[in-house]
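2024-03-11 09:14:02 INFO receiving multi-entity request
2024-03-11 09:14:02 INFO entity count = three
2024-03-11 09:14:03 INFO echoing inputs for audit
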Amino acid sequence: MNLRRLAALIRKETLQIIRDPSSIVIALVLPVVLLLLFGYGVSLDAKDIRLAVVVESPTPAGSSLVAAFADSPFFRVTELRHRGEAEQGMVAGRFKGVVVVPTAFAEKAGRGDDAPLQVLLDGTDANTARLMRGYVEGVWSKWLAHEAGQRGQTVAVPVVAQPRVWFNPQMLSRDVLVPGLIAINMTLIGTLLTALVVAREWERGTMEALIATPVSVAEILLGKLVPYFVLGMAGMILSVGLGTALFQVPLRGSLWVLMAVSALFLVGALAMGLLISTVAKNQFVAGQIAIVSAFLPAFMLSGFVFEPSSAPAWIEMLSRAVAARYFVTILQTLFLAGDLWSVILPNSAALAVIAAFFLVVTLRRTHKRLD
Amino acid sequence: MFGRILALIIKEMLAVWRDKKSRFVLIVPPLVQLAVFSYAATYDVTHVTLAVLNEDGGLAGRELLARFEGAPTMAHIIHVATEAQMTQAIDARDAMLALRLPQDFSRRIEAGQSAPVQLILDGRRSNTAQIAMGYANTIIAGYNQDRAALQNLPAAPGALVVRVWFNPNLESLWVVVPGLVGVLTQVVALVVTALSVARERELGTFEQLLVTPLRPWEILVGKTVPALVIGLIEGSIILVAAQLWFGVPFIGSVLLLYGALVAFLLSIIGVGLFISALSSTQQQAILGAFFVVVPAITLSGFATPVENMPDWLQMATLANPIRHILVLMHGLFLKALPAELAWQSIWPMLVIAAVTLPGAAWLFRRRLY
Amino acid sequence: MEPLAVIREVGKRFGDTTALDHVSAAIPAGQVTGLVGSDGAGKTTLVRLLAGLLVPDGGDVAVCGHDSVTATAGIHAAIGYMPQRFGLYEDLSVIQNLSLYADLRGLAPEEHRATFDRLLGFSGLSGFESRLAGKLSGGMKQKLGLACALIATPKLLLLDEPSVGVDPVSRRELWRMVHGLAETGVGVVWSTAYLDEAERCHSVLLLDRGKLLYDGDPAVLTGRFAGRSFVVRGMADKRAVQAAARARADVADSLIQGAGVRLVMAEKAPPPTATELTDSPGATVEPIPPRFEDAFVALLEHRNAAIPALPSWGRHSGSGTVVEAKGLTRRFGDFVAVDKIDFAVAAGEIFGLLGPNGAGKSTTFRMLCGLLPPSGGEARTAGIDLATAAPQARQRLGYMSQKFSLYSDLSVRQNLNFFAGVYGLTGAHRRDTIARMIAVFGLEHMIDQNAGGLPLGFKQRLALAAAIMHGPDILFLDEPTSGVDPLVRREFWSHINAMAAEGVSVLVTTHFLDEAEYCDRIGIVYRGRMIALGAPDAIKTEARSATLPDPSLEDAFVALVERADREEAS
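2024-03-11 09:21:47 INFO inference complete, emitting structure
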């Protein structure tokens, strides 16, 4: 290892990063775009769900029920007279759900008989439907209690569940998504960008000139790793800054733990990028492999949006090989819960194993030869 | 003229198919994505692990716990002895939620009083936790009902009958796979067209085309038709896979589906050729496509509902072809969407195509200088 | 003296192709060793083996006593290597490229400044230190590539086709630099397809399809062909003479040179008499000294045995002016790429545009083809302005661009089908034309191969076929023979001549000044301006001076460019 040669390579790479607009785009613009998209556009928090309430014949009970739904923050209620109209609206996608208050409802409800209140949900959005079911049940039991109270009755409910949401009492999906996004951004810089730049050196023939000099394989690899490591860490700090400043996402853990864990993840991502480019040697193929093998898994299998434990067993097994899964777990904990070592230590160990694996394979696969 | 366009179409198809790299892009990523997205893009919550801290030890408590143990939605139950252990189980994500029965639980139940139980959720997984809480509430509600019947308490005045239309068992696959028809054909059509002109320009063949008697609109047709055909083939494959492999029902009109797919592909091809006409290298074209694909999918309603977005953003998504195709695909697969409703989603895509396609043809020549 | 590098019984295969077959040679210090051969002869493979970048399948390579497989590090410390595309970082400046390679090669920091100054002065790049390498001209890139390879004064310098795509002035400078180096004791390996360069090497390795045909002084090889070279002069129609000579079995090679035709006779064949070749009364056949190219062509003659003639198109010879540029100007921002160029080309004429890289030749072509609107002046092709004319007008022209611009992933046949289709050829006419192109250009054996995988010579043949299959009246050829070997160039020119004979106007740009001699008229473009226009012999006369009483076209070119520089300066 010759430090002067290494320094020269790092300097060269840094100059190239500064001069190549596509590096800047991937490293700085794309993370910001993603952050804005996810901060503003992506939310699982259903509010103002469009709900049709059909009151077939107006009664006091019916209107108080409509009022109960209209009061709920989860629904935006449209009152209709005819069931057919509401059902059509659901086919057209105008309503996500329909509540039918039948003519018999008010009379029966008053007598304590069975007066079914019918609820139809649009299953083409399964998650919202599932959430709506809970919300409708909530409005219903509140209304029941209220009605009973009006009549001076108390309905004794034996077991009352008192939910406590730890770490994220308001259940904001943004507070969960924004930390996870750091893993996506670092995958973009670490794997996609690195795979592209090394492949570019092969494509342009500069690698051929480089390997004919006394430079060693370790120096070539480190010369790539160091600048993109710095860039990746900068991207991480940018994401953290924007996330906490713009979207008020809390960072409850310590910054230095975040830095250390990110560094560990980034080394693995970079090594993977280097490995892809030594195999592909062509920007187009390298880019595609990076997207399929790193970007998509980081998105789909990391627990960033979707829960791997709910997927079929083979997908769950697959997700265990994805470094982003461990990183996302740590990120969500660090941001929302704090320095919980029971989460950080085992997941960091997994990250270290993955990073070491890619480093060793890359080192073995890189030769100073053309064949 | 027809002969010239035909020659161009044949060439375009061959170029896409004979190039190992573009063949790879057409086959491997869509298949990988189909497999992974279909199964992984799920908000279903299975394998719920529940931590139980039973400080009570009475009969009623054991009965309630037996219900949790017997419930199909609770995959796994960990019994913890102390509060510290419960905290640890949630912290380390060993348990998705925790149930704590206080010391006087059984006593209160037997006395006919309300007995509170604590249900602790992991807010780091907000959506999953909410759904898991729903499962727990259902179990508790069932217990309460039976308990009420047993003690001859007055029943609740009325009942709630919830039915889910279109997708009665709320299968995520039924939602995700039809959406993938739109999302994946989009990616393929966009990458093929975004690269097409940029590649020809980078390799110098575009100049060779421009010295032939071909007119810009003929080049446009020659580039559009192959991408359309490829997109339709890709869409059909996913369609067949949806029914045969994933078992998603299709109750709408096939004719309407293909009509919708053509309108969708034309709008995507217009965007792709527009990107391509603006890029001078393939790298720029790929980056450009990436910059369109990621926001377009994120803001389409594929992963999260459009209704949850801020209003201004919902308006903006009207210019997003994927938003419209998702409505159409869900509608046609699951709702048997009638033609007049389908048209409301088809015409915006045609408008997008009518702007982007001629725009791209105009740029073909301009950008050469 | 101990040789610097020893190649022993080396073989190398790539899949089914044998790149090198039992090659043995030695590279001495203090000499320029030329590596000569046609495309696919194995030149690049041999250079890469010497650089330790490839592992031989058989035999061994030792450089400065280091084995190329087991002691690669020793080799890399001892050599300077310039790969085909120069290996420069285009988004780094000149000085940043130099300083990168200086550090990689372990040049002590205190020596940096002095070494850079020396190399910059030596390569004429002083004043361009902060320019990005990507913004340099071809010639300057090549000199910077050389400077980077020389930074730590290597024992062995490996240059892989350093002069492809570089103009004659830059080639001369490079050649001087490298010979100067050899005098200081550096061993140089210079691979090239230019035979005039090979002629001036101390020794050459002549490769053909992976086999070493000759190893030694080029003059000795040339000497073997003494008495077989002749020149025919004083005839009216030089093309007819060349065609007649080519048809004869006893002529190994025939070539137009200005007003004359150069002949190389087959072994032991007596020269033909003038009357056998032409009816012109004043024609003479005179012996001339052989040159290396004669030897090369004669040695590989079997490869070139039958160039099938391009069959007649049955076209009436046209007449009058077909292409005209009047005050043609093109600006890109502040930069004037083409500055008020005037010329006209008649029907059936071969017109050559010459000039250094970036002089404005391709820009002129692109304006004439309607690919680029002029900023000023007029570009009329076939009497119309193609930038605004109806697309059908483009049916009359054929265009072969500088870069290979056919579809690499389509097979030869698919490419031909495509171009036949877009030019509107149909039915039997289309089938016949394609069949004829396949026969004329010898494409049968590779008809189903991907165009991108063809050897360079065949790529160029295919590109020419695609450009002419619809029978254009006007043909634009932008550096059609760049990088191809002399045999293919001969074939190309025989086709060009045949088409001109049918009345097709041919506009061609080239870096090969011997090719300029084949043209009826040439124009020399320099810094966007036309600095000379006329028949090749007239241009030679124009450049005649006391120091150069009988200039070659290359001498004339260099002299005219230098004169233009002086005028610019004053």
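2024-03-11 09:21:48 INFO post-check: Chain A has a mean pLDDT of 87.
2024-03-11 09:21:48 INFO post-check: Residues 49-150 of chain A form a domain with the abc type-2 transporter like fold fold (CATH 3.40.1710.10).
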